[in-house]
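Students often ask what a 'structure token' actually looks like in practice. Rather than answer in the abstract, let us consider DUF2277 domain-containing protein, a protein of 74 residues. Its sequence is given first.
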Amino acid sequence: MCRSIKTLRPPALPEEATEEEIRAAALQYVRKVSGFRAPAAHNREVFDQAVETIAAATAELLGGLEVRGAAQRV
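Now compare that with the structural description of the same chain:
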């Protein structure tokens, strides 16, 4: 049902995760937790909102992490 969600922070990725990668991870998480690959029409809004909320939280997390030994962001 769901592929593995990959690590999105350096050094697992050579550069910062893209919005597309963050959204894909959020989508996989929501699919796994909800048990739906694609929700029914009556669940679409809440499903999509969950994906957006988790993507935003993920971006905030990645933006705030300090990775030791990694080059400092400018």
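One point worth highlighting: The chain has two helices and no strands. Ask yourself how you might have guessed this from the sequence alone, and why that guess would often be unreliable.
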